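Sorry to interrupt, but I need a hand with the structure work. Could you write out one complete protein record for me, on any chain you like? Just paste the record in under my message, thanks.

. . .
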Amino acid sequence: MEEPSPDITRARVAALEAELAAVRAEMQNFTYAVSHDLRTPLRHIVSYAKLVQEDAGPQLTAEVQEFLTTITDSGHLLGVMLDGLLALSRVGTVRVEMAAVSLQELVPAVCKELAALHPQRNIVWHISGDLPQVQADATLLRQALTQIIANAVKFTAPRDPAVIEISHTLEPGGDPIALQVKDNGVGYNPTLQGQLFQVFGRLHSANQFAGIGVGLVLVRKALARLGGSVDIVGAVDAGCCVQLRLTPAVVPPQTCSA
């Protein structure tokens, strides 16, 4: 069978790329429209429910007041969920600028920022002193790392001390780099593994831990755009380990001067 000519192959690739770009643009536009266009009626619902509570509160029964509180609380939650959808949309459309990023600088900086948000917590950090450079978009990688380490901080809340370990290993052949974030937190039921990367999927109740179940989806999407991936292993009451696979930084060849 005769193989297609290079010109035909290039034309097919170009057509597929154009089709993929169109589908991606359509999905991003849909997500953006939903997250924005739903805000106006949502604001009206929450605002008028509050007005009824303030103006007619003394005349309402305790049960009706509870109904109004449920409306406003649900409205606020929906607003947070729309913010999550918008964040996912941005991750899929933001321009990616790949460059060498030092994990040895980035990881401690992210940990310091998160520790400052929880000054009352007893968190023990074990950060490897030889973290390498990776090829990535600095903004996307920082966003993904912040989400992963913030999860470690959140799910170790019942622990005193909370222990968070960050290290790396090299995959066979030295490519890719596996950055590991381990914690001694509450972990999760492995039978729920399939829900980890579902939008609005949660493995713990909102009463236990805050969140809407978008963070890990954002991480996976960001890593995919960087040419990497993310895996998580955990067990009930035994913490979990998150592994981010990243591309080693491209080191320019050294030239020898005569």
Summary: The CA atoms of residues 191 and 258 lie 63 Å apart. Strands lie at 99-102, 123-127, 133-136, 162-170, 177-183, 229-234, 240-248. The chain has two domains: 6-93, 99-248.
